[in-house]
Amino acid sequence: MNRIFKIAVAAAAVSTLSLTAGTGVFAQMTMPDACKSETSASGTMQMPGGDMGQMAEHHKAMMEGMRETEPAMMQGMMAKDPDVAFVCGMIAHHTAAINMSEVELKYGDDQQAKSMAERIIAAQKKEIEEMTEWVKQHAK
């Protein structure tokens, strides 16, 4: 299986989990049906057209944006201090959101979606700055 695809699937799996408040148990996030990818009978995600080479350019760009941030996200979340692990993981997660938003600005057609992407970029950059400063002050 293609390495980029494996990373994208792993990142998507991490992204679809959310921590249930107060329980420490992970629960799968509910997505609108229109957001769900096609799956095979085994439940695994199918690549559009069968492989990365046949994917649309925007799909390739989204996957590349995830591939670039996944190692940093995983590394950040491995910090011994749970607060530092959270904040470091979120810095990389926010960077992935910026990458995805930039793909929308490049390939998207809908003005409302593009406007959301612009707002996401601005908000995530501000939060990355805040989190980076927090890490400088709190990481041991």
What does this structure look like?
The protein is mainly α. It has one domain. Helix content is 62%, strand content 4%. It has helices at 3-15, 57-76, 82-107, 111-138; strands at residues 17-19, 26-28. The chain is globular. Mean pLDDT is 78; it is low at 1-23 and 39-43.
SSE diagram, text form:
Layout: H1 3-15, E1 17-19, E2 26-28, H2 57-76, H3 82-107, H4 111-138
Antiparallel strand pairs: 1-2
Helix pairs in contact: 1-2, 2-3, 3-4
Query: What is the strand content?
Result: under 5%
List the uncertain runs.
1-23, 39-43
Question: Radius of gyration, Cα only, in angstroms?
Answer: 16 Å
Major sheet: 2 strands, antiparallel
Order of strands in the sheet with the most strands? 1-2
**Pattern of helices and strands:** HEEHHH
Total helical elements: 4
Structural class by helix and strand composition: mainly alpha
What's the number of structural domains?
A: 1
**Coarse shape:** globular
What is the first-to-last residue Cα distance?
39 Å
Helix content: 55-70%
Nearest-integer average pLDDT: 78
Question: What is the total tally of β strands?
Answer: 2
